[in-house]
Design goal:
single chain; alpha+beta
């Protein structure tokens, strides 16, 4: 997956939303994506997604565990020197 690839994610209710992939990381055998809804805004919202396989499907869940999110966010900040992530 190339940097700033655009992906479409489908929510449980069937709605779709486009995100730009800023970075992908494999940590302790788990794949994570750092995505944003905008490449234009300086204060754009970003999400950390965790990849899971369910049968033949690949599922991305938003990381909501605060400790896991803190660790993964710090890793992404180190990979992307010009990006500062704030948890809200």
């Amino acid at each position: 997956m190339s940097e700033n690839s655009k992906i479409m994610l489908t929510a449980d209710d069937g709605s779709e939303e486009a995100f730009f992939v800023l970075e992908k990381a494999d940590i302790a055998g788990v794949s994570y994506l750092l995505v944003t809804d905008s490449l234009e805004e300086e204060d754009a919202d970003a999400l950390v997604l965790k990849e899971k396989e369910e049968g033949t499907d690949v599922i991305y869940d938003v990381v909501d565990d605060e400790e896991e999110l803190r660790i993964i966010s710090k890793y992404f900040e180190e990979l992307l020197e010009d990006v500062e992530l704030r948890m809200e």
